[in-house]
Design goal:
Layout (H helix, E strand, L loop, with lengths): L8 H14 L12 H8 L3 H13 L3 E4 L3 E4 L3 H25 L4 H15 L11 H4 L2
Antiparallel strand pairs: 1-2
Length: 136
Amino acid sequence: MEFDTSSPIWMQLVGEFSRRIVTGEWAAGDKMPGVRDLAADLGVNPNTAQRALAELERLDLCRSERATGRFVTSDEPRIDEVRADLAAGATDEFIRRVRGLGMAHDKARTLLDTRWDTHEHDPDTASTTTARDGGS
């Protein structure tokens, strides 16, 4: 995972961990990786990983069980709510960017529909899309 300087790393981790939960990479009810493992895998301080996990608990996306670790919430409506929040944020970013390019709403909608069909709902293709692919 690459971090940017525009927000604290722990907040970026909250976003990444939330994404893992809503996509099912970390399935509802499953045990989550430990703080030290996460920190080592991501190249961050364990305190940073711990702060992000504490925030996930505050957001009701996971729970701690004494001596057994942390577990992803089994509350599917909560996961759906977070999924909708993340999608809304991505949508807002899309709107901000296409407006910044001077694109009209109808053309942006057509572009989105075309790209949606092209990628056949594959979330992995989102990170490989380039400006060249988006057309003009």
